[in-house]
Structure formats: C-alpha cells, structure tokens
Design a protein that fits this description.
Strand order of the largest sheet: 16-17-19-20-21-22-23-24
Low-confidence stretches: 1-21, 146-151, 773-789
Number of strands: 24
Strand content: 15-25%
Radius of gyration: 40 Å
Structural class: alpha/beta
Length: 789
C-alpha cells in the first residue's frame, strides 16, 4: 500500500484495494512482502490438512486455513488489527493445530504471522502474540484424541521451548515496524511542511495564512495516531481555546493557567495534578502528555498565544519538530502580511494625516460612480485659508500639527460614511456616497464650523477658516471631472473671501482673468523658449561616482521669474500643456547628455526624464522618444523614463505604452516608490529596472525606525527581483551610511549637489570625473521646498 499523502492541506488516504504491484514507499513495501511471506507459509503448511486422520478433519483444517488467510487479507486491507480478529485468528490456529498430524508444522504459519502482525496494533499486542500463538498450538495438541490415528510426535514441553524464539521474533518485528512507521510519518510530516510553505509563501491575507496553517495542523493530527492539538490565546487572566483538532471526548472552551506560570518557548507540562493538564485530559478523555509551543508576537501588540500538542504516554518528538516548523512558516508569512499591509497603507494613505491620498481617493470615487446600486455622489474640496502664514510664522512642524488636527476634525464632522483624503499641501477632499447636492452643502457647512477657530492643543497658534467647494455627479461625470468641478467651486469660494462655501454650477466662472492669462502663457512657454532644464546628479553607492543625471524642468516666467514645477506642472496637467513641455524637456535633456558623453567618454552617462499622466495618454509619445533617440544617436539604455507607481498602473493603455518604451531599449524607473497606490503590484507586472525610494522615507531614516524598516524592505525586495535602487533626497552622511549598509545601489540629493543648469553641471562633471574621488559635502539646509523637483 502507498502511504497517505498530503493534498490541498488534507490527509488523503489512498484506495486500499489489494494490488499486485510492489509499492514505492518502504512501509508499503514491507507490508506487501510480509503479506506474501504469511500467505506463502500457509500454502506450504496446507498439505498437512490433506494428511488428516479423516475427511471431516481435513475439511475442518481447510476451513481454518481459509479463516487464517481471510484475517490476514482483512488486516492488510484495513491496515488495522481489531481484538475480534485476534480472537478469531487464535481459534483458527487452534483448530489447524488440532487437525494436522504434525502440530509443529503450524510454526511455519506462526513465524510469518508474527512478522506480519508486528506492523499493526499496539506494542503490548506484539509482545503478547507469541504466548497466545504458542498457547493455541498447545491447546490443539492437547485436543488430539488418544488412540485415534497417529499420536502426536511432540509434547507440550517441546513446544514450550519455542517460546523464547517466538518472543524474540515478535520484539524484533515490532522494533522494525516502529522504525518503518516513524519513517513513514516523518515523510508525511515533511510533505505537510512543504505544502504549507508553498501555500503561504505568496499570501498577504492573514486569515488565509491561518486557514492554510490549520489545514497543516489537521493533516499532522491525521498522520500521528492519537495526536491532539489545542490553540490557546491569553484574554486577561484566562486562556481561551480558539480551536482544537484530534480526538476529544468533549468541547474545550477554557484552560486554567498553569500553576508554574505561563510557559515560554517550547515547554513540557507533565504534572497530571496541574489544573491546566487536568482540564486538557478531561476533554481528551485519557491522560496525555502535553507540550506547549508559544506563538511569536508578530504584530508587537504583546498578546500571547500557544499551540498545545497532546498524546497518550508522550508526545512524539517528530510531531513537536513538525509543529515548530509549521509555526516558523506561519511566523514568516505573518511578517510578510504585516509588511504588505504597511506598504499598502503607505501606498494608499497620506503618512502625515492618515487620510487617503489622491490616487486611492480617485480609485474609491471611480468605484462609487461605477456602482449601479449607488445613489448621487458628491465631492467636497477643502482648502485652508492662509496656511502658508502658519508655516512662515511658526515653522513646518506647527503646520504639520495643524494638518493633523484638520484631518481629525474632517473625520469627525463629515460622518462615518464619508471618505476623507489629503490631495496635496493644505488641500483636502471628502467623498460623500448617496448624498445629493443639498445634503452635501449641509455637510460642507458642518465641516466649516468644525474647522473654524481650530487651536492646537499646546496653544501655539489659532486657525480660523477654510474654503469649501461642493460638486454632485450628474450620472455622466467621471471621477477626475467631479473633483475638478469641486475644485472650481472651491476657487470660486476663495475669490469671494475667506471661510466661504460654494457649490458647482454650470454658470460658475471657470477662472479669473489672471489664471486664464497664466494658462495661455504656460501653453506658449515651450515654443517661446522659456523652459529651463536643471539637472541633479545620480551617484552610485558606495563609490559615489556619477552615473546619471535627472532632468528637472523650471519655467523662466517673463513676469514672475523662475518658477519651480510645483507652481505650474499641476496647471499644465489640467490644461494639456504638459505634452509640449514634456517634449521640450526630453529633446533638451537628450541633447545635453550626448554632449556630456562626448566630453566625458569614460562614463556612459544616462539621463532620467519624468513622464506625466497626460504624456502616457498621448499616442505620439512613443514616436517622440524614438525620433529623439535617432536624432541624437543616443543609446536607448542611456534614457531612463521615470513614472510614479500610481500612474504606471492607471490604465491598460498606460501599461501598454510603458512596455512599448521598454521594447525600444529605454530603461523604466518607478519614482517616489512606496507612496503610490499599488507598489507590490507595480513590481510584479511592469518591466522595471530601477526603483527610486521616496525622499519622505529617506528624510526620516535617521530618526524613524519605521522609515528605516520600509527602506530596507524596499531594497531587499528590489534586490531579490534584480532591480537597482536609488534613494532620493539624501541630505546627511548618516543617511548615506545607512543606505550603503543595506545595499542601496544609488543615491541623489543635496548631500552631493543641488540641481543646476547644464553649464553648472558640466563644470561639476569635469571636476568630479577628472579627480575620480568622493563627491565633497555640499549640503545646505533647505528653507524652500519648491525647488526640490
């Protein structure tokens, strides 16, 4: 018979039909060979039945032989020896010994049966069988009729001399059987571990991990006879039973704490007088030895839990080892789940306020608008009045504190069904499901009242107002359009004054004259040659050699001076001017990098260029990249296209265009990794070569263990996937040392150089590449974050 195998976490017992082929496993092979030995010994002795004293005796001998064969086949089929079968077998041996002319011939049958029966039943039965078999033969001998036929040729004393040999045979057979059973159980337990490890390796749902773990526990209890399993968790002074498996006579809900205190690690609790052991034995229905295996506190909440293994006599060491291995599998899977949850939380939520970020807000809004069962959907756009003055007067830490308090007020005043998000800076949005325009306006007024007069708990400043715009879907509005309408309403409210609320209306002025003029100037900026491309070096670690530069656009406005991207890129995205801006930046950056490669041929310098959502929507993007590469005769691998992770998976067309760019030979990089909507999904589905770690994590790596853990997790995952990593915003030596220690591939930031014009970077490259030494420390504290990008 083949040994049981584990399939889908359950113990599958194969069909027990008798087969003629020799099984592959050693236990099944031994059972098959011992069956053949027993049947062969019976066949050899069977002719004794035909030499019986009379025909009725011969018939009786044949019947006894048939019973002996039947009990063996039944045991082989069931893989179990019952006490009734033992009694029937002894009676058949007695009859067979009575019928044969030579009772000693029965020993040929007995020896084969001792080997066969050693594979089944309890240990005491294997030691008692030799005496039982010998007694049966003696009884058959004594039943021979005196004076009828041939007298027996042996006496009971002669037969009794065989007992030591029979006993030794039974002991050896049982020892061999124990080894075979242990080997088979070990193989099955190993298969369970492999199955569990395969099941949980990719799971990110903690409930799924525990379901897989318990399937493995059930399979283990099915493999090891008499094994019982109990899961306990601490609930104050009580130990609550979460689940049980194995043979229990009655339900078990609670277990008293051990008198010696709660065990740690792996502990044998053997005292039968201990209240915990007494409760466990009462539920099991038999005295058992119990082993406590403490589960690790993965989530750090300090909650203790245990898995208890119980078995009559003693718990097999192999079962304890198997359970410990399963616990390690589950512990690793739990850590993966916690890491995935942390990364997902950071990918979908604003780290400062805990509200949803823009990408996840738009995803929720889209799902709500697409739902056939949803009613009217409204969006509120909230912008704080004079927030910049708070930062200027009290510092950015005070501003962050205000944003956190505003987020708390937003949650409490918007209602339980509302979904709040921080869109950027001091701008917030609220999704109101099944809410019409009138209800949305009432909610907006409630939020405005909650925000008015907000004061920090330390009394450092007061804040008075916010402007709110409201918009309600008309059944045909998509998510971006609905948010844009709420945004327009908010700007209209700001144009009226502070602490105002406005609802979107078709007659609402779309923009003021200054805004309209700004948008017209931006549309002509590329054609007028007003765009300026600055570059920031990207250095490899740990040798600090420049391997690439990142292109960062600025706008030399004819009236306002040099503007950073945060002052015009959002407008360019909204109006579509980003397409001409992106094309101009791409052409200029390729021209500059080719010039640097000609001047510094010893380094194959690459250039990083950011691509926006609107550019990925453009079918001409691929042609633009191909034409620029051909025009400047640049190796495609020297062009790195940077996209944010939320943008990379925004649509199938975006994914298709990214694959097409990679097919040209262009390198794809994920920018601001860890802050988008689905970081892990991005790594799995896109042909990414470079992962750029967001500066917000790098900034906190010197003081925040959480940020250090996230960075290390990103580097480890990227390394396993064969990806390069670049840390953004490196501003201190301690950050650099930490990044080097965990194997980060590259870095960029003010520690090495601020963004500069092509002329400035050219001079810096000449000095840096000529000396081939470590970049000097050029960090200057930042007071205006507008030029970081």
């Amino acid at each position: 018979m083949t040994s049981p195998a584990v399939s889908e976490g359950r113990l599958d017992v194969p069909s027990r039909r008798i087969r003629l082929g020799l099984p592959g496993d050693i236990l099944g092979s031994s059972r098959w060979l011992f069956l053949v030995l027993t049947l062969a010994s019976g066949i050899v002795v069977l002719p004794q039945a035909f030499l019986a004293r009379s025909a009725p005796t011969a018939v009786l001998a044949v019947a006894a032989s048939a019973v002996l064969v039947g009990t063996v086949l039944r045991t082989f089929h069931r893989q179990y020896q019952g006490w009734l079968e033992e009694v029937v077998e002894l009676l058949a041996l007695t009859v067979f010994a009575y019928c044969t002319t030579q009772p000693t011939a029965v020993f040929g049958v007995i020896f084969g049966r001792l080997w066969f029966r050693a594979l089944y039943g309890a240990r005491w039965a294997a030691l008692a069988r030799p005496a039982a078999y010998l007694t049966a033969v003696m009884v058959g001998l004594l039943m021979h009729p005196d004076g009828a036929g041939d007298p027996p040729t042996v006496t009971p004393l002669v037969l009794a001399s065989f007992f030591p040999i029979l006993l030794l045979t039974g002991m050896i057979g049982r020892r061999l059987a124990s080894s075979l059973h242990a080997g088979a159980e070990n193989a099955q337990l190993d298969a369970i571990q492999v199955r569990l490890g395969t099941e949980v390796v990719g799971l990110t749902d903690l409930e799924e991990v525990w379901r897989a773990a318990w399937r493995a526990h059930e399979a283990m209890c099915a493999v090891v006879p008499g094994l019982r399993l109990v899961m306990l968790s601490q609930a104050g002074p009580r130990l609550v039973v979460k689940r049980t498996d194995g043979p229990f006579d009655r339900p078990l809900t609670e277990v008293p704490a051990p008198s010696a205190g709660l065990p740690s690690g792996t502990t044998h609790q053997s005292s039968v007088r201990d209240p915990s052991v007494a409760a466990l034995n009462a539920a099991a229905g038999t005295p058992c030895a119990w082993v406590w295996v403490e589960l690790p506190d993965v989530d750090g909440r300090g909650l203790r839990a245990w898995l208890l293994l119980g078995a009559p006599g003693e718990v097999p060491a192999r079962a304890v080892m198997a359970l410990t291995a399963q616990t390690h599998h589950v512990s690793l899977a739990q850590r993966n789940c916690a890491l995935h949850e942390s990364l997902t939380e950071q990918a979908t939520h604003d780290p400062l306020t805990g509200l949803h970020n823009r990408a996840s807000f738009l995803a929720e809004l889209t799902a709500c608008l697409d739902s056939a069962d949803s009613g009217p959907t409204s969006v509120l756009f909230v912008d704080l009045d004079d927030f910049k003055e708070v930062n200027d007067l009290f510092g950015h830490q005070a501003g962050d504190g205000l944003l956190q308090e505003v987020a708390g007020s937003l949650r409490s005043s918007a209602g339980d069904q509302a979904l709040g998000a921080r869109i950027g800076g001091d701008e917030f949005a609220v999704l109101l499901r099944d809410t019409d325009a009138a209800e949305a306006s009432a909610t907006a007024h409630r939020i405005a009242r909650a925000l008015t007069g907000s004061t920090r708990s330390d009394g450092s400043f007061s804040y008075t107002a916010a402007c709110i715009g409201a918009a309600t879907s008309d059944g045909e509005t998509d998510a971006e359009a609905l948010v844009h309408r709420a945004d327009l309403a908010m700007y209209h409210a700001k144009s009226i004054g502070k602490s105002r609320i406005a609802s979107y209306d078709e007659a609402l002025p779309r923009r003021d004259p200054d805004q309209a003029a700004f948008e017209r100037q931006l549309a002509d900026a590329a054609r007028a040659g007003e765009l300026v491309v600055h570059y920031q070096p990207v250095l490899s670690l740990p040798d600090r050699r420049c391997t690439a530069v990142e292109a960062l656009v600025r706008w030399q406005h004819p009236e306002r001076g040099l503007l950073g991207p945060d002052q015009f890129i959002p407008v360019a995205e909204r109006t579509g001017a980003i397409r001409s801006i992106g094309a101009a930046v791409l052409r200029r950056s390729l021209q500059d990098v080719v010039a640097w490669q000609g001047r510094f041929p010893q380094v194959p310098l690459a250039v990083h260029v950011n691509v926006s959502a609107r550019q990925l929507e453009d079918d001409h993007l691929l042609d633009q990249v191909r034409e620029c590469l051909t025009e400047h005769a640049l190796d495609p691998e020297c062009l790195v296209i940077e996209v944010t992770e939320s943008l990379a998976i925004s649509s199938r067309d975006a994914v298709r265009r990214l694959h097409a760019l990679v097919a040209l030979g262009v390198v794809l990089a994920i920018d601001d990794f860890g802050t988008g909507y689905s970081a892990l999904q991005t790594l799995r589905t896109l042909p990414i070569k470079i992962v750029k770690i967001d500066r917000s994590f790098v900034a906190g790596s010197g003081s925040s263990p959480a940020d250090r853990a996230v960075i290390e997790a990103i580097v480890q995952m990227s390394t396993q996937l064969g990806l390069r990593t670049v840390a953004e915003g490196v501003e201190g030596k301690e950050q650099q040392a930490f990044l080097e220690s965990i194997g980060t591939t590259g870095a960029q930031g003010y520690l090495y150089r601020r963004p500069g014009t092509a002329t400035e970077i050219s001079a810096w490259l000449a000095e840096h590449l000529a000396t081939q030494r470590e970049v000097p420390h050029q960090f200057t504290p930042v007071t205006d974050g507008s030029l970081r990008r």
